[in-house]
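sorry for the late reply, my laptop died twice this morning and i had to redo everyting from scratch. anyway the thing you sent over, i finally got around to it. pasting the sequence first so we're on the same page, its 88 residues, then the predicted structure underneath. double check i copied it right bc i was rushing
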Amino acid sequence: MSVAISVRLPEFTARRLEELAQTSHLSKTDLIIQGLESILASQLDRKVTYLSDKQFDEVLDFLSHPTPTDVQKKLAKTMNTPYTWCRK
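ok and here's the structure:
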């Protein structure tokens, strides 16, 4: 689904957009969408999460030990068990 919007551009910017559309063989709409998506993606990269010391330690612990040992053993057993339809 798409939504139509109307934007007023300064003449200089409109001319540059037109030239870029011609040289890149992309539509002005595609260029504007690419520009907005680039800005939105860079905004996502700038998101910062602040944690307390306790929360930070919990994250580090989780990254160091993502799953309990018993779960890791069960997963290893499952991954090393051949499929029943592949047994000979």
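The helical segments are 11-24, 28-45, 53-64, 69-80.
thats about all i looked at so far, will dig more tmrw
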